[in-house]
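ARCHIVE CARD
Drawer: 12
Card no.: 0347
Subject: one protein chain, sequence and derived structure
Cross-reference: see card 0346
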Amino acid sequence: MTISDRVRIKDVRVLSDGWTTLKTTTFEYRRANGEWQTQHRETYERDNAAAVLPYNLARRTVILVKQFRLPAFIRGYDDLLIEAAAGVLDNAEPEERIRAEAEEETGYRLHHVHKVFEAFMSPGAITEKLHFFVAEYEPEMRVSDGGGLAHEGEDIEVLELSIDEALAMIADGRIIDAKAIMLLQHVALHVFR
């Protein structure tokens, strides 16, 4: 039996269709004991996205970005969020989109990006799946100041940090973005050994 054999969608209604689409779904789910249970869930329908962590092995550095995030602010985080560069795919292939996003946000034109994994970040409420990449960078790959696109509301600061400093920032709570944490731990385990 597959999961599709255990789920019967009964009703889907759009509650909001602004920056993202918020839907409420009524469905029946067959529990492990065979009993059908009616459930109701709200989901944010987000397009898939990609994130990248540029690193320089010889210098032992990484590139991160720092920007304002309203949801974090609403939850009491009174600072700019330090993150991995990322963006929505917008119907592009993940590798193609992350190269463009990296250049927009960080100013680096990355030559070779390497996909390391995919993950749902909040599967209980958000449909978005992220594609995670790492890429080597050299100082001469910087083609602009980065900073994002002003017409999209982006006002991004680019950070170049040592891998040790970035890992310490996770430990002391200065980096709390899941994308950044996952990618930093990946390069710490597999690149900066």
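Annotation on reverse: The mean pLDDT is 96. The beta strands are 7-17, 21-30, 36-45, 49-56, 61-67, 81-83, 85-88, 113-120, 129-136, 157-162.
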